TrEMBL record:
Transmembrane segments: none annotated. It is an enzyme of class 2 (transferase). It comes from Cordyceps militaris. This is non-specific serine/threonine protein kinase. InterPro entries: CK1_Ser-Thr_kinase, Kinase-like_dom_sf, Prot_kinase_dom, Protein_kinase_ATP_BS, Ser/Thr_kinase_AS. The keyword Iron-sulfur does not apply. Belongs to the protein kinase superfamily. SMART domains: S_TKc (SM00220).
Length: 310
């Protein structure tokens, strides 16, 4: 049996080491042996839901050229695997959250919100629903693009026109990540534009608060856990869910939950909400995130003898 490192994708992309797991596939860092730069390689065995990675590759084609969408280098079959090769990005927001001791400042959360809403709007404008918005699926760029937020992993994505056919159905199987799932998803309803944005709201609250009220709930089965999480999301008043945060957070969650299946969100309004909170808090749009400051302090050797200049 050949080792992964012995496989050369498209006679040029070398697999170096595993960096994560995406929807229905393993993700590796690799090298383009012709250009010498690094790439990300997602592999999915040809016998395991091959339509998933094929659909994901098609989605990247539809989204190609958008800000914060990784550029695909190659997609095809190689040694019993489907391989999706795209530019290598930086750490995920979940990685950076852990790096920052699992709490982001309100400034950083609002900077993330501004970019994330724009990414979701672009995806929606192309007729695509992401359907698995979570911290692991947002990555920062590298080098000169280090402050650009990228959206990845379209393994569960669906074209809106296909979702539209099932909007009246009830009892659909759960899809995505329970922690950040919309109420419609919990209730077995087909997801739409507002559901991606509702999920983003939970991601932002998770970053701002360090956790969510339904994290850590215990249950005997996944179905029971799903029910507990759903009940917690429904029963908890939005003002309590967003307690201690600028009021715009509660407004955002309430707005996204109020959207009907065919309602297109007002993305500009949502960005204005958070920009209002940003300016009201006296912050500056300087692209300095919590992890930027932390790295600077570490480089300076943050100590009484060599204090940080930030």
């Amino acid at each position: 049996m050949r080792k992964m490192k012995d496989i050369l994708i498209d006679e040029r992309y070398r697999i170096d080491y595993k960096i994560g797991e995406g929807g229905f596939g393993l993700v590796y860092a690799g090298t383009d042996t012709k250009l010498g730069d690094e790439v990300a390689i997602k592999l999915s065995h040809v016998n395991i839901n091959p339509e998933i990675i094929k659909a994901e590759a098609d989605t990247y084609t539809v989204l190609a050229g958008g800000v914060g969408i990784p550029r695909v280098r190659w997609f095809g079959e190689e040694c019993d695997y489907y391989a999706l090769v795209h530019e290598l990005l930086g750490p995920s927001l979940e990685d950076l959250f852990n790096y920052c001791d699992r709490r982001f400042s309100i400034k950083t959360v609002l900077l993330i919100a501004n970019q994330a809403i724009s990414r979701i709007q672009y995806i929606h404008d192309k007729g695509i629903l992401h359907r698995d918005i979570k911290p692991e699926n947002f990555l920062m760029g590298t080098g000169t693009k280090g402050n650009i937020l990228y959206t990845i992993d379209f393994g569960l994505a669906k074209e809106f026109r296909n979702a539209e056919r099932f909007q009246s159905l009830q009892g659909l199987p759960f899809g995505g990540t329970r922690r950040y799932a919309s109420l419609n998803n919990h209730n077995g309803r087909e997801q739409s534009w507002g559901d991606d944005l509702e999920s983003l709201g939970y991601v932002l609250l998770y970053f701002a608060c360090g956790t969510l009220p339904w994290v850590g709930l215990k249950a005997a089965t996944e179905a029971e856990k799903d029910e507990l999480i759903k009940k917690k999301k429904i029963s908890l008043p939005v003002t309590e869910l967003c307690g201690g945060l600028p009021p715009e957070f509660a407004t955002y969650v309430s707005y996204t939950r109020s959207l009907g299946f065919n309602d297109r969100p007002d993305y500009a309004y949502l960005r204005r909400l958070f920009r209002h909170a940003f300016l009201n808090s006296g912050f500056k749009y300087d692209n300095i995130y919590d992890w930027t400051e932390r790295r600077f302090r570490e480089m300076q050797g943050d100590s009484p003898e060599n204090p940080s200049q930030t």
